Amino acid sequence: MTKSELISNLAARFPQLVLRDAELATTTILDAISLTLAKGQRVEIRGFGSFSVNKRASRVGRNPKTGESVAVPDKKVPHFKTGKDMRERVDVTLGN
Length: 96
Hints:
alpha+beta, 3 helices, 44% helix
């Protein structure tokens, strides 16, 4: 599902929301999550999951085109871990 599909579904599910309000709400939530992660903090949404920042250490990689060794610097990457309710809902809905 894309962001625009999420906004459309939200507006369709709640008729009192016009499309512009659904877009504002969605954008505000996603921006708040992004800004919190950018500060290095964790975001937890009960029943859904948690977002955190993981640090990847520097390493030596290879350029696939030339085979030459390349230094890859350390970096921080966002990480999402599903909540228990979400895992159970997906498992029941999709089956094994």
